[in-house]
TrEMBL record:
This is Tripartite tricarboxylate transporter substrate binding protein. Keywords: Signal. Gene3D superfamilies: Bordetella uptake gene, domain 1, Periplasmic binding protein-like II. It comes from Roseomonas acroporae. It holds the Pfam family TctC.
Length: 369
C-alpha cells in the first residue's frame, strides 16, 4: 500500500454475514472492539487480567527423572483444568485428548473450565492443588505472557510453581490480509507498512494476546508500523476483518477458513516454523522473516511435589495418546499439530517464551488489557 493509499473504508457489516460465518464464531462475538477486559477466546492470553498467577511458592519435585511409572495410580477420576471457556478450540481439543487419556489410565479424565484473569485462576488452582496427580493443568503461552505483562515487585515464576509433564499440541496462526490491501505476500505487506506507518490497522484477540504479541514481534523485527486494534476475542475481530474495518489479523486456521473460502481475505504467511501439510501454498513467516515465528502451544503441568512415579505414569499415558495415528489425522485438518516433547522440552519452551515475550512487551510498550 502506498503512502497515498487511503485506509480501508469503515463499512458496516451486511446482513448476510451471519449466514456464512460459523455459529460458534457468531455466538462468541462481542459488540465491537475492546477497551479492556474479557478473554473468551482460546488465543487470547491476556485480556481481563487480574493480578497475575500469584501462584503460591513451592519446591518442584525434580527427583528421579527415570522413575518407574506408578501402575496403581490413579484410583479415582483425574481433573484436567483449563483456563478457557467451553466450546473454543482449546476446550474441544482437551476434551478429545481427555477421552483417550481416560482409556489409557483406566479412570475418567474430567475437563474443568476455570476461566478468569487471563488463565491465572486455572494456573493458581493447580499450583495450589494437592500434589497427588489428581488435579492437572493444560497450560499455554499465557504462563509466560502473564509474567511479562505483570512483572511487579515479586513476580511468580511458573517454572518453579508448576511441574512440566509433557508437550501436548500447538496451533499456528495464519496472517490474514483483507482483499482490498494490494499486498499478496508478507514482504509486500511489510513494505506497505514501512511506506505508510500506522496506515494499516491490525486486529488482535486482546491486548497482550498471543496473536497481538506475534504481530508486535514481526513488526519490531521488520522495522514496520501498523495501528493496533484490540478486540474481546477473535470472533469480533474476524467480523471486522471481513467487513474491511481492519486490514490484518493473525487467526487460527479453523477461524480463518470461512474468510479464505469466500475470498474476503487471503493468507500471506503462517506463524509456524514450517508450512502446514494442509496448507502447503502458505509460506512460513520464517522463510522471509526468521525469528518471528510462534504458535499457540498447550502443555501438561502438575502441582509441585507430585511424586515422580505419578509423573512418569502421566508422561507415559499422554505419550501413548499423542502417538495414535488416527488422532493426528483427525486434528490436522483444523491446523492442530500434536507435539512429541517431554518434560524437559516443555520446560525449555516455557523458559524461552518467558525471555522472548518479556523483551517484546518491553520494547513495544505493551500494557495489559
Amino acid at each position: 500500500m502506498a503512502a497515498s493509499s487511503p485506509r480501508l473504508p469503515r463499512r458496516h457489516l451486511v446482513a448476510a454475514l451471519s449466514a456464512t460465518l460459523p455459529v460458534s464464531l457468531l455466538a462468541r462475538a462481542a459488540p465491537a472492539r475492546e477497551a479492556a477486559a474479557g478473554c473468551p477466546d482460546s488465543n487470547c492470553a491476556a485480556s481481563n487480567r487480574a493480578d497475575p498467577a500469584r501462584l503460591d511458592s513451592g519446591s518442584v519435585d525434580r527427583s528421579a527423572p527415570g522413575a518407574a511409572p506408578d501402575r496403581a495410580w490413579p484410583t479415582r477420576p483425574v481433573t484436567l483444568t483449563i483456563g478457557y471457556a467451553p466450546g473454543g478450540l482449546t476446550d474441544v481439543m482437551v476434551r478429545l485428548i481427555a477421552e483417550r487419556l481416560s482409556r489409557e489410565l483406566g479412570q475418567p479424565v474430567v475437563v474443568e473450565n476455570r476461566t478468569g484473569a487471563a488463565t491465572a485462576l486455572a494456573n493458581t488452582a493447580v499450583a495450589n492443588a494437592r500434589p497427588d496427580g489428581q488435579t492437572l493443568l493444560i497450560g499455554t503461552n499465557s504462563l509466560a505472557i502473564n509474567l511479562a505483562l505483570t512483572p511487579g515487585a515479586t513476580p511468580r515464576d511458573p517454572l518453579r510453581e508448576l511441574v512440566p509433564v509433557r508437550e501436548v499440541y500447538h496451533t499456528p496462526f495464519l496472517l490474514l490480509v483483507h482483499r482490498d490491501i494490494p499486498a499478496r505476500t508478507l514482504p509486500g505487506l511489510i513494505e506497505a507498512a514501512r511506506r505508510a506507518p500506522d496506515a494499516i490497522d491490525y486486529g488482535s484477540s486482546g491486548s497482550g494476546s498471543v496473536n497481538h504479541l506475534l504481530t508486535a514481534l514481526l513488526l519490531q523485527r521488520a522495522g514496520a508500523r501498523m495501528n493496533h486494534v484490540p478486540y474481546r476475542g477473535a470472533a469480533p475481530a474476524l467480523l471486522d476483518l471481513r467487513a474491511g474495518r481492519i486490514g490484518v489479523f493473525y487467526a487460527t486456521p479453523l477461524d480463518a477458513r470461512p474468510l479464505l473460502a469466500e475470498g474476503s481475505a487471503r493468507a500471506v504467511a503462517i506463524s509456524s516454523p514450517e508450512r502446514l501439510d494442509s496448507l502447503p501454498d502458505v509460506p512460513s513467516v520464517a522463510e522471509t522473516h526468521p525469528g518471528c515465528e510462534g504458535v499457540l502451544w498447550q502443555g501438561l503441568f502438575a502441582p509441585p511435589g507430585t511424586p515422580a512415579p505419578v509423573l512418569a505414569r502421566l508422561d507415559e499415558a499422554v505419550r501413548l495418546v499423542l502417538a495414535q495415528p488416527d488422532l493426528a489425522a483427525r486434528v490436522a485438518s483444523e491446523g492442530v499439530v500434536l507435539m512429541r516433547g517431554d518434560a524437559d522440552a516443555l520446560r525449555e519452551r516455557l523458559r524461552g517464551d518467558i525471555a522472548l515475550w518479556a523483551r517484546v512487551v518491553r520494547d513495544a510498550g505493551i500494557q495489559p488489557g
